[in-house]
């Protein structure tokens, strides 16, 4: 395989695509604008405890993601839901204990943290193949190639595959000639996974909730957190609670959010709930390398997997990929892998046509 493929984005989608293409003999380069790989996979290490502030769970029906975990020799373990859950119906009422319904679909977590996937994928690349701090600003169509310009470098490839969210792509990268108008319109109406999420984690010395017969699972109609889960690690040696905040709090300060959460923790768990070692959070709405803020409301998963993303552009030299473009499980980790496999098949077909 002699084609050179330039991949925009070093999240799960881009790294997986590079991993598969390199094994097939393609020459690849991955450009990541951030100072880290992983994109929306973000495992924060706090007080020697790994807290997932990005993608966290997978399920048994995520066949292609499970196949990747098997290939990379990555182990999984079940999300703990043993014990009672808590539900806060109103701000005036106390949280009520209840039994979670039996026979629920099992959620799995990754031993060592979700970033284990991207770290293992990244081991496949040399420093010439994976570049950080390379924010793409322009894509120029040439006769037989594509020129990609970042803020401080230039690259040339036979094919460019973008794995960044479509809305971000069409609003932050200049195309010469201009990108297909219909594609831009759909991209601006495509919801970006995690864009509206605020995830938080609280590290504790002990899993006090288990001693109370609780699972660590909690739900609230009034917030500030709407969901919370046990986040004990696989070896049962580090302890945390992790969950989601009401996204209306995105404009508040971190200190304000923590103060509100602390009060809600006291209501849910008593004084032990407030006795955490540290508080971590990630307001994904404020991540400039994730979303383009145009003040337009989009329902979750709007236009994810739209047929327009299955087409190739710039005379077959540009492919729009990434989780949001997947026709199966669009907007999830499984979607990133599913779409990656589609793109690999497309590129192999293109190579065979040339050959």
Structure, explained:
InterPro entries: Amino_oxidase (IPR002937), FAD/NAD-bd_sf (IPR036188), Flavin_MAO (IPR050703). It comes from Polaribacter batillariae. Pfam families: Amino_oxidase (PF01593), NAD_binding_8 (PF13450). Belongs to the flavin monoamine oxidase family. This is FAD-dependent oxidoreductase. The structure is a single chain. The chain is α/β, with parallel strands linked by helices and 355 residues long. It has 2 domains: 175 residues, FAD/NAD(P)-binding domain (3-Layer(bba) Sandwich); 166 residues, Alpha-Beta Complex (Polyamine Oxidase, Chain A, domain 2), CATH 3.90.660.10. Helix content is 25%, strand content 26%. It has 9 helices and 21 strands. Strands 7-6-16-17-18-15-19 form a 7-stranded mixed β-sheet. The longest helix has 22 residues. The termini are close together. The model has no long low-confidence stretch (mean pLDDT 95).
At the first level of CATH, the class of the largest domain is Alpha Beta
| Count of helical regions | 9
Q: Measured on Cα atoms, how large is the radius of gyration?
A: 22 Å
Strand order of the largest sheet: 7-6-16-17-18-15-19
Number of strands: 21
Give the low-pLDDT segments: none
Largest sheet: 7 strands, mixed
CATH topology of the largest domain: FAD/NAD(P)-binding domain
